[in-house]
Amino acid sequence: MNFEQMEHIVNVANEMSISKAAEKLFISSSGMSQSITQLENELGIKIFNRSNQGVTPTFEGKIVISKAMTLLNTIKELNKEIFELKNSNQTHLKILTAPSFTFILQETMVKFISENNDITYELIEQNPTEIIQNFNKENYDIALIPASLEELKREKNILFEHIHTGHICIAVGKNSPFYHHDYVTLCALKDSKLVMYNSSDYKKVLKLTKPNLNQVLVRSNSNSLLYKLVTESQAILYLHDFSIKKSSMVMNGDIKIIPLKEEKHFPVDFWLIYLETKNLTKVTREFMNAFLYNFKKCI
């Protein structure tokens, strides 16, 4: 019996279905069925009774599945202990983030560094779609991302914690005709000039407003450039409600954050994600506690 076979029979027992277990583990139903049959032949017993109503463990199968669960949990705990041992004195945090969190992360880092000057940081900003694609491939400690629960559930080996449900807004400067509005409609924004993050993902809004190339003045990942353009022109910037809420630009009125009237149609869930095999180290959890404290002040 190997690790994959143990994982297969445990998932089939939990799902009471070979096809559902196969879908969960991203393999074919035939491959799952062959794996179980091979294990049954190897052990000389029948692990599952199969019928049109699904699969149920046999008496012998329940014993094997119970032992497999114990072994899988032991392996998981062992991997966790090894990781924590290797990282008990971690001095480097590698963080992947969507642009929405950058300002609050930077504020948190400045304070955290002053109190923990033996820790170094690496902050990488990416489009939310790229974050999901790349998080499993790189040695990141955590990622902060807007995503649907369904998107995250499709990812293997990722744990996630819900942070906030927010909305898409616009940022405008005093030269904007929208500056004194309490809210705006998407219809009113259709002919507006835009500045945009390269790594942003506002597909729903852009699909409805359908901006042409002439409307997009600048695409950049330079926050300072985009904010300066918003401040000194009539251009608008799509962002999430909390992104720069506590920045000096917003607090002194140079930039105003205005909600979309249709905000109920564009709810966005924000998440902390990390690897199941890696979990959160003590340093990472302390940093996240500091970040969440600052985050709550912004919402």
UniProtKB/TrEMBL annotation:
It holds the Pfam family LysR_substrate. Keywords: DNA-binding, Transcription, Transcription regulation. One of its GO terms (molecular function) is DNA binding. InterPro entries: HTH-type_LysR_regulators (IPR050950), LysR_HTH_N (IPR000847), LysR_subst-bd (IPR005119), WH-like_DNA-bd_sf (IPR036388), WH_DNA-bd_sf (IPR036390). Residues 1-58 form the HTH lysR-type domain. Transmembrane segments: none annotated. Belongs to the LysR transcriptional regulatory family. This is HTH lysR-type domain-containing protein. It comes from Sporosarcina globispora.
